[in-house]
Amino acid sequence: MSNAAPRPADPEHLWSVEEHLEDILATVRPLDPIELNLLDAQGCVLVEDVTVAVSLPPFDNSSMDGYAVRVADVAGASEEFPAVLEVVGDIAAGGPGALRVGPGQAARIMTGAPLPPGAEAVVPVEWTDGGLGGGPVTRMPAHSLAPEAAGGQVQVHRAAAARAHVRAEGSDVRAGDRALDAGTVLGPPQIALLAAIGRGTVRVRPRPRVVVLSTGSELVQPDEALADGQIYDSNSFALTACARDAGAIAYRVGAVPDDAETLRSAIEDQLVRADLMVTTGGVSVGAYDVVKEALAHVGDEDEPGGGVEFRKLAMQPGKPQGFGSVGPDHTPLLALPGNPVSSYVSFELFVRPAIRTLMGLDDVHRPRIQATLVTDTALTSPKGRRQFLRGTVADGSVRPVGGAGSHLVAALAQADALIVVPEDVESVEPGTEVEVVLLG
User: Of these four, 25, 88, 188, 215, which has the most CB atoms within 10 Å of its CB?
Assistant: First the structure.
């Protein structure tokens, strides 16, 4: 990490949401580009324009199963007066193109097969008798079952215009065209295009590796029995899922007990596979807040520029936060609160933008809209704190779900948005236009 924004020396300084986020984004840098195979590059961001080397399709080919014909030979054809043509053979997709269609001739052609020399159009098999001498057919007999159908005669019951049912060479993209721009996120359609134009590898910024670690001696893994005073560890699951949703390769570490040395050791063990580390819990002012104890001075002496600073933010939920770097490579670390809603909101506001920055994306934030507040009573908010309330959005309106408590996971599961109440607002009446962060 480098070029960190100046940090106030006063430990009681109350940081704004913007100050904390700006400090993070001024420090985190996009990962260096690498060359990856196509499937490994899914979800990654291109770092260079991709130019088409071979036109797509690379040759004129049939878009239908049918017969390749000359336009003049089928002019005026009908079921009553069909055009009768000599079938000179089969042209299958991927097969050799030795056939030529001359006057009064047709070649049986399959979808994707190259249009043979002399042919000007394709008539679908449904417009013919399929070489059987009867009325219109619905399909061709399999070549292996009826090889004789590749010869003889075919009756064509409709005329065809020039280039009918022919996919022209380069009709999708032409050699020399730009297929994809630098900055494109590679999803399935983009990977399909790269493969179609012959690119087996591509230069991208890799998906960042994010390690999520929760702290607390009270935490138990799901499916295990709870003893007195214990709860299930949900934060590490939630934040790992959030990191994957943001585009990262995320690794979840089992809950670490409230012991500073154990936590330091766990973090050191995980650095080998981390481009970003996220901890949850242990950042407040209690006697067992071991993240602060373990990390407050890491790197200050041996690793100039390193260390994690713990802050108070003017927000609710999520007042206690930590940010800095650890390890010899100055791996960024964000320390989030332990309450489930606090950690989730903190992830959306701070960790997600950091992940998207590591990926090299230009737009790193969730979309925001204005919506009408629908509620029975006015919302209250603490003075001097920016509050983020869970809500659901529909038809330009937003409705709060659950209360303001930072432990209410059930209400969080119903929400698809965060309602933003500014620091200078203590009450929001029903019908007020409010800012909303969309989570879906």
Answer: 215
Q: Which helix (H) or strand (E) holds 270?
A: helix 260-270
> Distance between CA 75 and CA 158 in Å, rounded?
8
Of the candidates 408, 412, 293, the residue with the CA atom closest to the CA atom of residue 339: 408
Contacts of 9 (CB under 8 A, 6+ apart): none
Report the run of H or E that residue 206 belongs to, with start and end.
none
The pLDDT value given to residue 151: 73
Question: If residue 313 lies in a helix (H) or strand (E), which one and from where to where?
Answer: strand 307-313
Contact by Cβ (8 Å): 357, 364: yes
Side-chain-side CA neighbours of 40 within 13 Å: the count stands at 12
Each residue of 90-106: pLDDT tens digit?
999 887 777 999 999 99
Q: Collapsing DSSP states into helix, strand and coil, what is residue 193?
A: helix
Distant-in-sequence, close-in-space partners of 265: CB < 8 Å, separation ≥ 6: none
Percent of the chain with pLDDT over 90: 71
Residue 215 CB burial class (10 angstroms; 0-12, 13-18, ≥19):
buried
* CB-CB neighbours of 343 under 10 Å: 29
Cβ neighbours for 433, distance < 8 A, ≥ 6 positions apart: 370, 371, 372, 373
Q: What are phi and psi of 399, to 5 degrees?
A: -125, 130
Mean pLDDT of 10-31: 91
Q: For residue 198, what are the β-bridge partners?
A: none
- SS3 track for 385-401: CEEEEEEEEECCEEEEC
Query: Which of 48-52, 180-184, 266-270, 406-410 has the least mean pLDDT?
Result: 406-410
* List of residues 6+ apart from 177 with CB closer than 8 A: 51, 52
What's the pTM?
0.83
In this structure, are residues 85 and 67 in contact, taking their beta carbons and an 8 Å threshold? yes
Question: CB within 8 A of 110, min separation 6: which ones?
Answer: 62, 65, 90, 91, 92, 93
